[in-house]
Amino acid sequence: MKVFGGTSNFPLTEKIAKELQLEVSPLEIHVFPDGEKRVRVLPRVVNEDCVVVQSTATPGDTFYMELFFIVDALKRSGARSIIAVIPYLGYQRQDHVFREGEAVSLQVIAKTLEVVGVGRIITFDLHTIKTPEVFKIPIEHLSALSLFAEKIKEILGGTDSVLVSPDMGGVRRIKLLSEMLSGMPHIEVVKNRDLASGEISISDVLGGEVKEKAFIVDDMIATGSTIAKAAEVLAEKGAKEIYVLATHPVFTQDATRILQDAKVEKVFVTDSVDILGDKHFSKLQILTIAPIIAAKIRDII
Ligand code: R5P
Hints:
By secondary structure, this protein is an alpha/beta fold. The chain is built from 8 helices and 14 strands. The radius of gyration is 20 Å and the shape is globular.
């Protein structure tokens, strides 16, 4: 087996390879002056099972193109099987036509991955459990919830606590987490997003009471406004300590400032997306998903 990595999240590629007691195999990725890339596989891969790690957060288009080229190069070089580890699967939010005339971006991505030669995908905390239905190849849908359950147990103490989903779409996730935490109570905030502007508003809390400690759990953080607004409503309704646990830190430019200023104690995310230097902030703590991915690769190969 050989492990390769695109340029999106090399630290995670190295951690996965280390867990598998392997070195990352080298690729030559040359960038032309106009930004186009030429990808070349350096080691011999004939009849090898190959794993390619590439997270497709910002800039998603660039990282997807790079992944397509790496997979194509491996296939042309004789690889027996290709598993794409895409910890954060970009474009998954556009999984159907929301308004007449729109593209279904996720379907385009799925078809392209299949056509270039990916045989199987390993990914994390997809936006909905229906996402794998878009793909014809097998999808291993892993979750960071077990890491979050451990973290919550560490913080709980004896205080009255509640799990919070920041939108209706996250209710299933919060119920699973509640089961892992001996039935910890859970509530959801009522969030509305303007489909044209992307602007969100949060009006109320449903499903139970806000407690002294609140744990907001989400699949991803992009601008940080969902978290900041949810925290504001929870604080108004009596939460004294608010923690955030979100799998994918797809931080846009202002997200780190918004999160640092939000009424939250700590923001736990995973390394599904590489967080570059200027996007770190003091409330941020990163949990690694490398052992979970490595265990799944060992199961498959
Ligand atoms: C939305 O449905 C997702 O679960 C996240 O809540 C959302 O993508 C977070 O986005 P932002 O950080 O921009 O509010």
